[in-house]
Design goal:
Number of strands: 10
Strand order of the largest sheet: 5-6-10-9
Radius of gyration: 16 Å
CATH class: Alpha Beta
Protein name: GAL3A protein
CATH superfamily: Class I glutamine amidotransferase (GATase) domain
Distance between the termini: 13 Å
CATH architecture: 3-Layer(aba) Sandwich
Length: 189
């Protein structure tokens, strides 16, 4: 297992204690290195031939730094290295795992694919970003409704997705969904 991140500036920096942006500037690779405890490489160096699969975590950083979904929605652009990584694994018929908001990357890069970001309606207030499912459909992809503890497998494209924090759920349910995503990716590898 190796960890990669793009070597680019963050769109913005948020003080998560206050919930507001700061004037700071930070680099995605440097911040990712902090989380990965330094064991990380520039995404530009990733070679799909050296790996059996790729998994993209989610989080708002994906929507702001791996693509511009947070600002542009379905009209977003995808970071060139993220795009080329997805294309390389897809072309090699190797599995791609995506959780939380990152399934929008596949929806943008692979028209016609199937993904999940949870539900397409805000069921009991648990899916506040349910409109993301509509945007995915507008991109020509199929959104498949799944519960937070489940994942969806697009067998034709070898894409496995789960909603994770797109659902307001207890951490153990989110953990279970991510676990099913990882298990399904490994089965396809």
């Amino acid at each position: 297992v190796k960890i990669f991140a793009p070597n680019t500036e963050q769109r913005d920096v948020v003080n998560h204690l206050k919930g507001s942006p700061t004037e700071e500037k930070r680099n995605v690779l440097v911040e990712s290195a902090r989380l990965a405890r330094g064991n990380i490489q520039d995404l530009a160096e990733l070679k799909a031939a050296e790996f059996d699969a790729v998994i993209f975590p989610g989080g708002f950083g994906v929507a702001k730094n791996l693509c511009s979904w947070a600002v542009d929605g379905k009209d977003c652009t995808v970071n060139e290295h993220v795009n080329s990584t997805l294309q390389a694994f897809h072309s090699a018929k190797k599995p791609i795992g995506l959780c939380c908001i990152s399934p929008v990357l596949a929806a943008k890069v692979f028209p016609g694919c199937e993904v999940t970001v949870g539900q397409d309606k805000n069921v009991d207030g648990r899916f506040p970003d349910a409109e993301t499912a509509s945007a995915i459909a507008e991109l020509g992809c199929k959104h498949v409704c799944k519960n937070v503890n489940e994942s969806h497998v697009d067998k034709a494209n070898k894409i496995v997705t789960t909603c994770a924090f797109m659902c307001k759920a207890p951490l153990h349910e989110i953990f279970d969904g991510i676990g099913t995503m990882v298990q399904e990716v490994l089965k396809l590898a």
